Amino acid sequence: MRTVAILSQKGGTGKTTISLHLAVAAQQAGQAAVVIDLDPQASSAGWKDSRAAEEPVVVAAPPARLRQALQAAETGGADLAIIDTAPHSGDVALAAAEAADLVLIPCRPGILDLRAIGTTARAVKLAGKPAFVVLNTVPPRASHVLADARAAVAVYGLDVAPVALQQRAAYAHSLTAGQTAQEYERGGKAAEEIAGLYDWLSGVVA
Ligand SMILES: Nc1ncnc2c1ncn2[C@@H]1O[C@H](COP(=O)(O)OP(=O)(O)OP(=O)(O)O)[C@@H](O)[C@H]1O
Ligand SMILES: [Mg+2]
Questions:
Q1: Structure pTM?
Q2: Cα of 11 to ligand 1 centre, how many Å?
C-alpha cells in the first residue's frame, strides 16, 4: 500500500478537494483507495455520506489512531491510502508526514500563499519525506505561475508538481453532489487535470 499525506497549514487550499479527486482517480484506475480523514471537521467523511457509490472508502479517524487506521486499510486490501488533514495542525501534520511515502502540499498560487508553506515544509523536512507543492485554483492563461511558484518554494527545498489545477466550478459542484469532477463532468477539463495529476503521482510513488 502506498500512502500519500495531503498537508497545508493554511485553510482552504484544496486538501479535501485533492484527496477525494485523487481517491476517485485511483478507483477508476482499478486501485482500491482509502481516504483517512484526520480533520475534526470531517469534510471528506461528510462527502462520503452524500455519495451513492461505495468506493472509495472514507474513514474519519482521530489523529491518535492514524497508525491503526492505516493498518486496517492495508489489511483490508487498499492499494492507496490518502490522508486528508486539518489546517493549523503542526503535530498531526508531522505524524501524517511520518506515516506517508509522499506528501502533497496544496497551495493557491499567490506569493503570500507560497510563502506560508514554511511550517508545512518544516514538518516534511523533519519527517524526511519527499514532498511536492500542488498549485490549486490557478487562473487560466497564467503561464508564469509554475516558474514563479518553483522559485518561491525552492527556498524551502521543495519542488512544484508539474500538473496544476485551475479554478473550475466542476471541482466544487461535484463534491456537493457526493461526486468528483471525473464523475460529474466526464471528459471535462477538470477530469483531464486530475487524470494528469494522478498519472504523475503514480509515477512518483510507484
Ligand atoms: N481548483 C478548484 N476550483 C474551484 N474551487 C476549488 C478548487 N479547489 C478547491 N476549491 C474550493 O475551495 C474551497 C476549499 O477547498 P477544500 O475544502 O478542498 O480546502 P481544504 O484545504 O480542505 O480546506 P480546510 O483547510 O478547511 O480543510 C472549497 O469550497 C472548494 O470547493
Ligand atoms: Mg479540508
A1: 0.98
A2: 9
